[in-house]
Amino acid sequence: MTTIYGLKNCDTCKKAMKWLDRFGVAYTFVDYRDHKPTPETLLEWAAQLGGLEALVNKSSTTWRQLPDNRKAAASDAEWKLLLREYPQLIRRPVVVTDDGVVTQGFSDNGFKKRFGKT
């Protein structure tokens, strides 16, 4: 089963779930404010998405409000700490399918391709 990680009040996550419902794709939703991803999970996602920094939504309000010294994480350990402390910084939704493939974000065409729907 597909797992969608995001925030329950996120418009993009809502769009992704509506798309999955419309095309009959079974999924579970995990709000990562309530269930923070473990450091191991963050590393698994980062391995497929281009590193921990690639997980960060740098256009978010949360990111803009961070002090500059927090934005200048210099190691994976610092990025993991930042993402565990502020899970809302993770670009959303994070989509994990049964085969272990991880993607971020939502677009109609991207999901059609990902889930083999036309």
Explain what the structure shows:
With 118 residues, the protein is of the alpha+beta class. 42% of the residues lie in helices and 14% in strands. It has helices spanning 11-22, 39-49, 61-65, 68-71, 76-85, 108-115; strands at residues 2-6, 27-31, 94-96, 102-104. The protein has a 4-stranded mixed β-sheet. The radius of gyration is 14 Å and the shape is globular. It starts with a strand and ends with a helix. The model has no long low-confidence stretch (mean pLDDT 94).
Layout of helices and strands:
Elements: E1 2-6, H1 11-22, E2 27-31, H2 39-49, H3 61-65, H4 68-71, H5 76-85, E3 94-96, E4 102-104, H6 108-115
Q: What does this entry show, briefly?
A:
The protein is an alpha+beta fold and 118 residues long.
